[in-house]
Write a structure and sequence with these properties.
This protein has 392 residues and is α/β, with parallel strands linked by helices. Helices cover 42% and strands 16% of the residues. The strands form 2 sheets. The chain has a 7-stranded parallel beta sheet with strand order 6-5-4-3-1-2-13, with helices on both faces. Strands 9-8-7-10-11-12 form a 6-stranded parallel beta sheet, sandwiched between helices.
Length: 392
């Protein structure tokens, strides 16, 4: 209770990055901070963003050590001062990242906060299977004390099955902002050249080189086609390798690299295309770029990674192909170029599917439910009050 006798809200401490750089975890955190959750809980946010750019994500160096030490002590101070009822953190899938996250989690456990772990990928099991006896015992020690796990799709629930009962694992798909879905006449007609889009960090793990290998296979069958590739380069080595492949295949005039785009520029980019390709190689979770493309009425050809098979309805909003298969990508793309009627129907279905299941409002609603359920399970209630804090 406050000094005036007014009940106060339960405190929710959020640990995580915000844009820029632009990636799924940071954008999801920003959506939480901007949402109605701030009216239901007293939010305190520890921003752990490395502002040096996307190229430094998952590339630890001495500066990261400095940042972590600073953030570690700030985290401890916030936990002691604020006594959060709930502690929310997006969990890393790398060993170094998990160790960092666990050191954020430990003080929260010591202060009896209910810890909520949110996995934005699908590769955590491989992390758990690495290392020896001590590493696995450490994972067990941390994760068996987590109050609630969040995954992106139903098919990802088993990832945390060894540490939690099913009722402690919640599904909260990603969500995107969707403006009024209106398919442009240019999209639903014989647009030429046929535009194929790719939007992501430009690196091997996101399938850039698989896409570049598919381009000559597509152009061999369909001449009137162009490729627009947007996103920041992960490194100069990746840029040089991409340029080398395009030059060797004689495809440099077929591909335009747009660079990093955000906001309205990104929406215009997606609206200019006929088809979106996401050929991810690593175990993706549920890439926001796929949802953004679908929200703008783009059929999607994506690899069978993470819960994309659950997100992209096969033959309804797009197609799922095996990883690392330029041939499979080319086959589906050529099929959609040659069947405009089916492509148009997939486009309409894609926008409808996002509206029904993957908007940012639905993301916030589901997350708010998880927070509320976890709070109730702790024996605490969420009442009254009005404060939102963000701690850089």
């Amino acid at each position: 209770m406050s000094k005036k006798g007014i009940p106060e809200k339960a405190t929710l401490l959020l640990i995580g990055p915000t844009p820029p750089p632009y990636h799924g975890v940071g954008m999801a955190m920003q959506a939480i901070l901007d949402s109605s959750i701030a009216t239901q809980f007293r939010l305190v946010h520890l921003d752990i963003t490395d502002r040096r750019g996307i190229g430094h994500v998952d590339q630890p160096d001495l500066y990261d050590v400095f940042l972590f030490v600073k953030q570690f002590f700030r985290n401890g101070m916030l936990i002691v001062r604020e006594r959060p009822a709930l502690f929310y953190i997006p969990i890393s899938q790398t060993r170094i990242g998990f160790i960092r996250d666990s050191l954020f989690i430990l003080p929260a456990l010591m202060m009896r906060s209910r810890v909520i772990v949110h996995l934005h990928g699908a590769n955590f099991e491989s992390l758990a299977d690495q290392g020896g006896f001590l590493w696995k015992r450490y994972l067990d020690f941390i994760l068996r004390r987590v109050a609630r796990f969040i995954v992106l799709g139903e098919m990802l629930r088993p990832i945390f099955g060894r540490w939690a009962a099913p009722d402690r694992i919640s599904v909260v798909p990603n969500g995107v902002i969707q403006e009024k879905a209106e398919m442009s006449e240019r999209r639903l007609s014989a647009q030429r050249p046929f535009r194929i889009l790719f939007l992501s960090t430009l690196c091997r793990q996101k399938g850039l080189f698989v896409l570049l290998d598919a381009i000559p296979l597509i152009v061999r069958e369909e001449k009137d086609v162009g490729f627009e590739i947007a996103g920041p380069w992960a490194s100069e080595d990746v840029r040089r390798e991409a340029e080398r492949r395009l030059t060797e295949n004689g495809m440099t005039d077929r591909v335009r690299f747009v660079g990093q785009i955000t906001g309205e520029e990104k929406r215009r980019f997606l609206r200019s295309g006929d088809l979106f390709i996401f050929p991810g190689v690593q175990q993706e979770g549920q890439p926001l770029t796929v949802l953004e493309a679908m929200s703008e009425g783009l059929p999607v050809v994506a690899t069978d990674r993470g819960c994309l098979r659950e997100t992209v309805a096969e033959g309804v909003t797009g197609f799922i192909v095996p990883p690392n298969s330029a041939e499979a990508i080319a086959e589906k793309v050529i099929h959609l170029i040659r069947h405009p009627g089916r492509r148009d129907q997939l486009a309409i279905n894609a926008a409808k599917r996002v509206k029904e299941s993957y908007t940012v409002e639905q993301f916030v609603f589901r997350l708010e439910e998880v927070f509320g359920q976890t709070l109730i399970a702790s024996g605490r209630q969420n009442r009254g009050g009005v404060r939102l804090e963000s701690t850089p």
